[in-house]
Every structure is written in structure tokens, then in C-alpha cells.
Amino acid sequence: KFSSAHRLGFGSANPTSKIPLGLKRKGLRIVVTGGAGFVGSHLVDRLIARGDSVIVVDNFFTGRKQNVMHHFGNPNFELIRHDVVEPLLLEVDQIYHLACPASPVHYKFNPVKTIISFILLQNLITGLLQACLAKRVGARFLLTSTSEVYGDPLQHPQKETYWGNVNPIGVRSCYDEGKRTAETLTMDYHRGAGVEVRIARIFNTYGPRMCIDDGRVVSNFVAQAIRKEPLTVYGDGKQTRSFQYVSDLVEGLMRLMEGEHIGPFNLGNPGEFTMLELAEVVQETIDPNAKIEFRPNTEDDPHKRKPDISRAKELLGWEPKVSLRKGLPLMVSDFRQRIFGDHKEGSN
Ligand code: NAD
Ligand code: UDP
């Protein structure tokens, strides 16, 4: 059911594949698309700390220079302002592809651009393939897919073998179907052109550097509690999500990239919370007096979501370490600083 390590037809296999994480080896050249965003910037920090050379490609739609500016002046760091729907030729060892508006508010903002950008992912992979041929070494492409490929799941918890329950014509389809298309393209390039690929299905992730006003539930509740505003619970608040702290995700992404298995792998924390329970944790962590205000829910909101992570445990030796109650306080000081500090949110 899993492909074993796939050797490219046009060069040596990836040089890192046999080296366990953390061991010293020659630095790689790595592209992180969307590297100025929330998850991407944490990944960049880990890669730079490991001694790799990192090129961030970002159009700053939701990302910010502030997330990576601590690397400015480091010869191992480069930042390119570029929209990934346009072709880009870079000779690199690995591509972590994260560029994509991730919050429902952002991906619904221009849904046609969202769905088209997934189809144009072809440009990025073709560029990678040409660069591989030019350099005559294998390079790896890691796609950050999402738990949204399961839609409003009829299987609970969700295993990677589940094909999902997605509305193809709904308001979330530009993202859900887009990511499904991206998985299809990634696998077709693997099967048809021998590109070495990895696929991660990421479940709801939170932590410092999330966009403060991007509408996602954790960033909304934390910002609302800090600003002494009511926590806005959509619908009856009984829908569930499983929240993962960002450092756990970054560890999982790196293990997946360096490992021998294509995936897809669920990367998420199996701790499942209703939105009302999440609101309680935010009250306990930030302000016990924070009020709750109910608002109408959005269309096609999935009722429940929880990853089965047995596959990642067994094959990547990975599981999350940070519980919601431990992780939430770790993002509060960053949010307080950005909300009350003189730093201007959203400025590039
Ligand atoms: P984010 O919005 O903070 O980061 C996305 C980054 O991509 C931003 O820096 C943005 O400017 C950049 N970007 C967007 N479109 C681009 C384009 N066309 N060209 C170049 N750059 C572009 O979001 P995030 O939470 O860090 O998510 C990163 C990835 O992980 C996304 O692909 C997302 O779909 C996936 N994911 C995230 C979560 C989560 O809970 N955070 C869950 C599932 C999947
Ligand atoms: N949600 C909420 N209040 C908010 C924002 C979101 O109750 O202020 C709910 C939303 O309806 C959904 C859940 O929180 O059921 C997770 O929403 P989010 O946008 O964070 O992620 P996704 O729906 O993509 O999993």
C-alpha cells in the first residue's frame, strides 16, 4: 500500500534520505514556498538552525516579512517575492510547498484564484523537474495538503485511506477540491515523471505568528480574549476540531521529507475539542471573564474532525508532544505583543 523510496530515473536519490534528523551533514538548498507565513516561517527557522540554505518564495498575500526578518543578512537565507502560479526555475534539493491562503476568510476572498492556483501548481512542479534535469540530481517536492480533503467526514477519526465527503460546488470547494487536485497532480507527476514527492494532510494548527485577523477559530478567540471582546462561537459550538501546536507540525513535515514514504500522512493532534470546549480553554488561559457570543455558522462547516495518526506513528516515528492546554499559552505573548505593541500588523 506504500511505495518504497523512489529513485529518480535521472540522477542519484536524495542525499539526505538515510541521515537521521539532527545528525550533522552537508547543508541542503531548500525552497519553502509560503515561507513568510505562519507555518512556513517556523519551518524556515528549523531548517536554518540545522545548517541548510533556505530560499523563501512568497507573494505576501497573508505572509509578512516580519516573520522571517530575523534571518535577513544571513548568507544562508534568501527571500523572493513571487507568485507561485508563475513558473520559477530553481536548482534545489528540496521544495516544501506551503504557499496557499489557508484560512477560510482568505481562500474564499478570491475563490477563482484559489482553485486556479492549485491547477497551476503544475508550473511549480514542472520547474522543479526541469531544474532536476539541469542539475542531474533528484529533488523532493513536499505538498502541504489538508484535513479538508476529508470534507464533512462520515468516518471518524479520519484515516488516510478515507476518500472523503466533499461538496464539489460549495463555498469551501475552491480550497477542498483545490487541495485534492494538488494531491492528484503531485501523484501524477510522481507516477508519470518520476518526481520524488511527499504529501502531508495537515489538521488545524496554531501558534505564534498566526495572522491575527485571519478568521480562524484559535486566532479569533485568542485575539478576542486579549482585546476583552466576546469569543464568537459559530453555530451551536458543538462541532469539533483537533488542534496541533506548530512545532509538532514542523517536526512531522521534516520527518516526512527526510523519510522513505510518500504518504499521504495525517499530521495532527488527536486531542478533539468542541468549539465551546476550546472557548473554555481560552477563558482558563487568558481571561476567565471572557464572554461567549453565538453567531450563525458558515456554510458547509464540517461537523467533526480528528486525525488517526497510526500511519505517521508507525512509519515516521512521529506523534505530537504539545497538548492544547500547554500550547495555547505559548502563543499568547506573541499575540499580546502584536496587538498592543507599536508593530503594525499586515505591513510588509
Ligand atoms: P499562511 O496564510 O500563514 O501562510 C501561507 C503563505 O503562503 C503566506 O505567507 C502567503 O503570503 C503565501 N502565499 C499564498 N498564496 C501564494 C502564492 N500564490 N504565491 C506565493 N505565496 C503565496 O497559512 P499557514 O497556516 O502557514 O498554512 C501553510 C500551508 O499549510 C498552506 O498550504 C495551508 O493550506 C496548509 N495547511 C495549514 C493548516 C493550518 O491549520 N495552519 C491546516 C491545513 C493545511
Ligand atoms: N469558528 C468559530 N468562531 C470563530 C471562527 C471559527 O466558532 O470565530 C468555528 C468554525 O465555524 C469551525 C471551527 O471554528 O467550525 C474551525 O474553523 P477554522 O476557520 O479555524 O478552521 P476550519 O473550518 O478550516 O477547520
From TrEMBL:
GO cellular component: a single term: Golgi cisterna membrane
Keyword field: Decarboxylase, Golgi apparatus, Lyase, Membrane, NAD, Transmembrane, Transmembrane helix
Membrane topology annotation: Single-pass type II membrane protein
Known EC number: 4.1.1.35
Pathway: Nucleotide-sugar biosynthesis; UDP-alpha-D-xylose biosynthesis; UDP-alpha-D-xylose from UDP-alpha-D-glucuronate: step 1/1
Protein's cellular compartments: Golgi apparatus, Golgi stack membrane
UniProt-recorded Gene Ontology molecular function terms: NAD+ binding; UDP-glucuronate decarboxylase activity
Keyword Transferase belongs to the record: no
UniProt cofactor(s): NAD(+)
Domain NAD(P)-binding stretches: 32-329
GO BP annotations listed: D-xylose metabolic process; UDP-D-xylose biosynthetic process
Family to which the UniProt record says this protein belongs: Belongs to the NAD(P)-dependent epimerase/dehydratase family. UDP-glucuronic acid decarboxylase subfamily.
Free-text function comment from the UniProt entry: Catalyzes the NAD-dependent decarboxylation of UDP-glucuronic acid to UDP-xylose. Necessary for the biosynthesis of the core tetrasaccharide in glycosaminoglycan biosynthesis.
Protein's recorded name: UDP-glucuronate decarboxylase
Species this chain originates from: Gossypium schwendimanii (Cotton)
Residue span relative to the full protein: 92 to 439 of 446
